[in-house]
Amino acid sequence: MQTTPKAPAAQRSGPMLSRVAHSLYWMSLYIERAENVARLLDVNLQFLLDFQGLSESLPQEHWGSILASSGGAELFAELHGEPDSQNVPEFLAFDQRNPNSILSCVLSARENARMIRDQISSEMWEVINELYLFLRARNAAEVWRAGPYEFFQQVKRYSHQFQGLADSTYPRSEGWDFIQFGKLIERADKTTRILDVKYHILLPTATDVGGAVDTAQWHAVLRSASALDAYRRYYVHEILPWKVADFLIFSDTFPRSLCYCVGRLDGYLHRILGDSPARPRAPAAVAAHDLLADLKSRDIEYVLQMGLHEFLIEVQKSLDRIGDEVVQTTMFFPADPEPEEHQHQQTQQQQQ
Amino acid sequence: MSLFTTRYERASFFDEMFGASGEFRPHYRRLAERLDTLSEGEFNQRRAAVDLAFLRRGVTFTVYDNTEGTERIFPFDLLPRIIPAREWTRIEAGLIQRLTALNLFLHDIYHEQKILKDKVVPAAQVFSAKHFRREFMNFSVPRDVYVHICGSDLIRDHDGNYMVLEDNLRCPSGASYMIENRAAMRRAFPNLFESYRVRPVEGYAETLLKSLLHIAPAGCDHPNVVVLTPGVCNSAYFEHTFLARQMGVPIVEGRDLVVRNSCVYMRTIGGLVPVHVIYRRIDDDFLDPTVFRPDSVLGVPGLVGAYRSGNVSLANSIGTGVADDKVIYAYVPKMIRYYLDEDPILPNVKTYLASEPADRKFILENIGKLVVKSANEAGGYGMLIGPASTEAEIADFRAKVAAQPRNFIAQDPIQLSRAPTWCDGSLEGRHIDLRPYILHGEKITVTPGGLTRVALRRGSLVVNSSQGGGSKDTWVLQGDD
Asked: ipTM score here?
């Protein structure tokens, strides 16, 4: 008797495993972070090259402020002590002890991608794997020594390729919402940190304000967010501190501005959390909505009055809360067992 | 190409490609002609391209030689192993016969135990088997199929006779490499396939899915199938995701599953979704911490209860390991005669059981000439190849065998057949085996092909990937040449 196979229809359209959603989120977030760190390092290494010899304390202050804004200052101090143009870039690029170094980010992105290989397109997997192989290959270190510019270009190119491939090969399903959510929350967070770098640089003396170093620093801030060209089209030629901040926080159209990122974030959150009887009104959705409303109703005057740094810290806290709550709401599995034991048992399983 | 003009030593082994007087066997002739048109440079180029493709696609397995666990590609040899139709017909019939008998045996020992009462297989050997699961006595598995996925290892002796070296009835792995190897060969030699009429292996995943759907609990219209993996750290993780993707089913870890009212669910972002069939790649011991090992963090509490209630089916069933115990292996030819009243089509390798006094005496006296294996290890671990071992290693094993006879068997060393393999710039003969994949759904099917593993080290007889083995694509032909 010929029987037709029962089609596993339910699972093809069924909802996504929480763990898979989680991995998509982290994969996307870490790729974005790797790119952002690469851009930040690239811009700032160039900046310091331009002002070599101008002031002896400049490099140290500059790297110190980058560490402070990126949140790795304590770990760095413990490992290296005083920052300089050698140890900070290496710490941020290759140090596996730093969970936010480019290498660590790529390892984490790949590990997450590996766990869900069956869920992403082979093109997406391959580009992450290639980025990993590139960083692991001996010539990455050589490229770095020869001049980091080419190295950063390569990292950024892989990230762009990944995003392009995700865009053109990943179905617009709930998984897509998580990929976008991870990318946008990281992007919004990094924009606040890039702006905050300038705060940590010791206030310039009166004669320096508007001087060559000051302007160049704002220049570097814009380039760290890939925003220089867009800013120039908008404000023609002046690079004024408050305009830079205004642009990076409030622009409606620039893809890395805080306002733009949070607007899109809100949309994806609505799709992830909305309209589910299990979650009538998720706190994360409320928080994102509030943040967006805040950003929409305020302007740069308000921010400067409150203090740029204080404002940015508040935003970072809101973003953290939103990220945590989404994880809590959609990814309900009990806390992991001892990771080491888990790993050990995994390797023990005999595959004959 | 000058591949075959350089001296190729056939030695005294059975060579897959060359006959006794050095002529090409008919089914290899066209391959040889094709290779002849390639320069060594071109050949190397293709080799490099294939290796790179495996690495980029992450077709790797994990070796635990240090704490980190390194991912390696499974070394791949570009010269395929070719099996003509007349040989395959016999292999296929032999494997179907064997798996039929093994399934009857498993049913029998977990129910009436007729074969034990008739003293065809000594009861003590079954009850002392590490993987015999008393808890499942008188439990009826769905559709009476115990082993849904089987990978029995075949070798050829010096006369070219195919023999069964061992059965793998728990979590046989490698099917993904069979499919990936074929894809690599198609890219490297697209034209060769057309002229050769090679039977496709790509149907494996579809047949696997059908076999899994076959055991879905009764009354379930849209069964949800999942692949249960130990996780990303497992050496075969690539394979688990590969098969899940090919079948279009989710891959889950134990922590993704939860049992409520004896039903299994997966945790999704939309809530709990029922699961009906689990292709599990986790050992029995780890499946359910409330029944087997309590320290298991890979399993699902309550899973065995759900299985007993008939709400979820497992492939392979719990307790199949008793039949691939290397001691029980020795009795498979007897099982075939007992249950099917047929002569075994594929013979076993002559095996001595250390638990039997006469055999034990023979083993202890001749250990240096024998291959000694522990009853329950896989992956080429826990074995001694007498002729290739030092005095100290032999003494060590002799003591182990004397102390724990039930845990050891010995076999005459078989001079495995050899196939030409590319080794550092020339073709040399290397020993190979064959793992075909047998699926038991509504009926038993053998995928025409399999994984040919090759011992890359000169003279080595160990083909396991963890021990320096590589693989070849395996071509089963429609015809005989």
From this structure: 0.74
